[in-house]
Amino acid sequence: MSYTIRVNGHSHVLDTSADMPLLWVLRDILGMTGTKFGCGIAQCGACTVHLDGAPVRSCVLPVSEVGDRRVTTIEAIGDTENGKRTQDAWLAVDVVQCGYCQSGQIMAATALLNRTPAPTDRDIDAAMSGNICRCATYVRIRAAIKQAATGNVEAAQVVPLVARGGRP
Ligand code: FES
Ligand code: FES
User: Fold this and answer.
1) DSSP alpha helix (H) spans, 27-166
2) Which residues form the 2Fe-2S ferredoxin-type domain (predicted)?
3) How high does pLDDT run on average in the chain?
4) For atom 4 of ligand 2, which residue has the closest CA?
5) What's the rounded mean pLDDT across residues 10-39?
């Protein structure tokens, strides 16, 4: 079947099966490897992308169901206002450890800010609970989201490096 999807502002015509997951399309056909494969069953969040600004698990989304909704991936999230704020905060707080989950974390966090500009701790927990980080960067993720929302480094309550469990 032929499908046309719009990714990061560009249209792509695909000749593929209806049930191919969007994640496969992004990584294997379009060569956009920023979005990661983790579990493949919608349980970890590593594959999170946006459809019209809302987060979806691309590992379980058939390409045939994308339709005319705008797909945004980690490669272009920095071109959006909230995506830029989120990425800047991630760097300022130094969130990343191994990095594997972080594309999905940033996409989930940006989607949260899109719908809730000043999230509470409860909002953050609810929005981020489905994004697993095996390096347990959760405290820094929460701090970075607060910084992105407020623009205030102090509000982020950045965890001192010495408290990060041995990371040099
Ligand atoms: S790879 Fe999609 S949720 Fe884990
Ligand atoms: S930073 Fe390593 S899995 Fe999240």
Assistant:
1) 81-93, 102-115, 121-128, 138-150
2) 1-77
3) 92
4) 133
5) 98
Give 27's DSSP letter: I
Ligand 1 center to 103 CA (angstroms): 12
Distance of CA 86 to the CA centre of its chain: 10
- Let me know if residue 168 belongs to a domain: no
Per-residue pLDDT reduced to its tens digit, 105-146: 999 999 999 999 999 999 999 999 999 999 999 999 999 999
- Distance between Cα 71 and ligand 2 center (Å): 24
Q: Evaluate whether 139 touches 127 at the Cβ level (below 8 Å).
A: no
The residue whose C-alpha atom lies closest to atom 3 belonging to ligand 1 is: 42
Whether residues 71 and 13 fall in one domain: yes
148 C-alpha vs ligand 2 centroid, how far in Å? 20
CATH code of residue 50? 3.10.20.30
Domain count, the chain: 2
